[in-house]
Design goal:
By secondary structure, the protein is of the alpha/beta class. It has one domain: Alpha-Beta Barrel (TIM Barrel), CATH 3.20.20.190. About 30% of the residues lie in helices and about 15% in strands. It has helices spanning about 30-35, 75-80, 100-110, 125-140, 155-165, 200-210, 220-230, 240-255; strands spanning about 10-15, 40-50, 55, 115-120, 145-150, 165-170, 190-195, 215, 235-240. Strands 1-2-4-5-6-7-8-9 form an 8-stranded parallel barrel, surrounded by 4 helices.
Length: about 260
């Protein structure tokens, strides 16, 4: 399934942590609403709880997106589940919880066409998180839907070499443990995520020449979406999926 992106001529919209601009990020509600809006892919972040349950949360600590304190890795799954992961975004979202990866997979089972950008957060146990996450994905038969992302090039290479799975990296200056040269980290990357600050038509062409799919993040306005299209980057990981989806519909109508 993920391989269809190699030949896709249209805009592909990936919801960054779900529908991040409108709902509390990395919650089941955020993912559900992004799917209902029409995203093609979901991007989400994985890390271990203290008792090695794979949790869907971006930050190393819980302060920003919950009412708790401390490191995710210092709290058990049960302790993390006691936290409110929605109230910080708005009172109406009070009571939302940090999902386990299993809970997200249960939701995704009803949407077999949605692709998955699985980001393993850099940490001392990131390779172990990758192992556990891939085992869960295999149980649900989701692997064909997935690409794996990490800002740590060593973890990315581990996933590529150990499992022969498709990976998305980043420009070398944004990654830790990046190995330069054509046989280095770039050779492990199926796709690259380019921030809007770095995105240029020249950079897109450079990656295309190296056989790497040039994706971008986060074009969240109409102007940014049109710039991404003009630069040749058609897969867009977005905080707000609405502009990209509306522009895609407009292009398809005209086409």
């Amino acid at each position: 399934m993920i391989t269809r992106l190699q030949t896709n001529p249209s805009i592909i919209v990936a919801g960054h942590r779900g529908w991040k601009s409108a709902y509390p990020e990395n919650t089941l509600l955020s993912f559900q609403r992004a799917i209902e809006l029409g995203v093609d892919m979901l991007e989400f972040d994985l890390r271990f709880s203290k008792d090695k349950v794979v949790m869907v949360i971006h930050d190393q600590t819980v302060e920003r997106t919950t009412n708790g304190t401390g490191k995710v890795s210092d709290l058990t799954c049960a302790e993390l589940k006691q936290l409110d992961a929605g109230g910080w975004f708005g009172k109406v979202y009070e009571g939302l919880k940090i999902p386990t990866f299993e809970e997200l997979c249960e939701l995704l089972a009803s949407y077999p066409d949605v692709l998955l950008n699985v980001e393993i957060k850099p940490s001392p146990d990131a390779k172990e998180v990758a192992d556990a996450s891939i085992a869960i994905l295999e149980k649900y038969d989701f692997i064909p839907r997935c690409i794996f992302t990490c800002f740590d090039a060593e973890v990315l290479a581990y996933i590529h070499d150990t499992y022969q799975l498709k990976t998305q990296g980043f420009p070398g200056e944004l990654m830790s443990n990046y190995v330069p040269g054509e046989d280095g980290t770039i050779s492990k990357m199926w796709a690259v995520g380019i921030s809007m600050k770095l995105l240029t038509p020249q950079l897109v062409q450079d990656y295309e020449r190296q056989g790497v799919l040039p994706w971008c993040y986060c074009p969240d306005t109409e102007q940014q979406v049109f710039y991404a299209i003009g630069s040749g980057s058609l897969l867009m990981t977005v905080n707000n999926p609405e502009p990209a989806i509306q522009i895609r519909k407009l292009i398809e109508r005209k086409g």
